[in-house]
Amino acid sequence: MPTTESADNDQLFVLTAVLLTPAQFPSVLGDDYPEVCAGLGLEPYAEGYGLVLGQDGNGARWTVATEDVSLVACAIAAWDCGMEYDLSPGEDSIVGALPGWPLSLAVAAPEVPQPHDPEPQEGDPEPLTPPDAEEWGPAQRRLGADEIAMQWAAWREQVDDEDSFAEPGDHAHKGVRRVLEEARGYVKEPPPPGRVRSSFAAGEARTLRVDGPGWSMVARTDDIAFVLLDEEPGEVHPVGRGPELPGLLASLEELAARPV
């Protein structure tokens, strides 16, 4: 778990942190890196940011944006290994302190009041709030794609029957066909940073995450793809490789943003 510091009300008790870069950002917050930055009031610099979520001495929620991406990455790596890491960005690296949290947290700092939004001051932005998890929409669609990417093997086992696939040709599901056409358009005209992201997969394959207006696609470069649509709550459409998908995935991989 992240370590916290005991101090006065101006000190931030760090609860967690996330990266905000073209290759890695909380998908729930947007379809691409510039969209997420805009929602947080940040400039979409290519180097990215680290977002530090915590509470002040009064228990108020704050999100601190720092340009020290490597520091935040080191802290996340240490916490993932069960090690303590004192995440304290230098003041010269901090580009903003935003009220509220953009993500839901189930933890709170010890010995301070329960998490709450800070008292608004004149000129302050509205507190950040997590997307509503109750109703299907873009945020839930992206969360669904995250889940498929993390649990690929379990999802893949459900569609071993070739009849379950939507083929990328003329008889494909209308929504799936639209998604594949828009994805092909990305190859011809690269989309905003973060619309296409690539991450590690088993063997020499990569996991591709591709998002667009109203849709998300998760794929393995050596296998099939899954498509989710805003207009079809909770539905997941497997897309078979066929003659077209391998080439499309290879082209998307070439333009994808990768973690450094």
UniProtKB/TrEMBL annotation:
It comes from the Bacteria. Residues 111-137 are annotated as: Disordered. This is Integral membrane protein.
